[in-house]
Specification:
This protein has about 160 residues and is an alpha+beta fold. It is about 30% helix and about 30% strand.
């Protein structure tokens, strides 16, 4: 049996048929970090970015991305999301390069036949890309790091949590 479910036994890409699966409650949490110069974080905090309220726009961008994930990821099923949550926190301790940052956690949930990991990951990625877009005029050296699944609950494969 082929362990890569998005490929047929002949090696052709396919969208997996989930029609025989039962509806279950599914939740996925993803995270990521955008590193930046301390002055950039201060301007975000002070509302001094000319494009607007950075974290509010990034929050909306994350929700929009989660809702449209199946339009961006070729073999991803369209999912009727029941919720998307976005949380930002500041990283105030500089890394080795002197950069601070913003961490995002996104949670996607649904009751359905397939998981919401891609929706949570897409939401985290677009939240960080939105912040980058809004701040790139003042800090082109920003970098996105560690976009990753933190946890998933529900479905046939059960629950999973990233080891600490």
């Amino acid at each position: 049996m082929n362990e890569l479910t998005h490929f047929s036994d002949a090696g052709r890409a396919r969208m997996v048929d989930v029609s025989a699966k039962s509806d279950t409650r599914r939740v996925a949490i993803a995270s990521g970090v955008l590193r930046m110069q301390p002055a950039t974080l201060e301007r975000i905090r002070a509302g001094k970015i000319t494009k607007g309220d950075v974290l509010t726009v990034a929050d909306v961008g994350a929700v929009m991305a989660a809702k449209r994930t199946s339009e961006m990821i070729p073999m991803c099923h369209p999912i009727a999301l029941t919720g998307v949550e976005v949380e930002f926190s500041e990283i105030i301790d500089p890394d080795a390069s002197g950069c601070v940052g913003i961490r995002v956690f996104t949670t996607a949930s649904c009751t359905g036949q397939t998981g919401v990991e891609m929706e949570a990951l897409c939401a985290a990625s677009v939240a960080l890309l939105t912040i980058y877009d809004m701040c790139k005029a003042i800090d082109r050296g920003m970098r996105i790091e560690n976009v990753q699944l933190e946890e998933k609950r529900g479905g046939k494969s059960g629950d999973w949590k990233r080891p600490v």
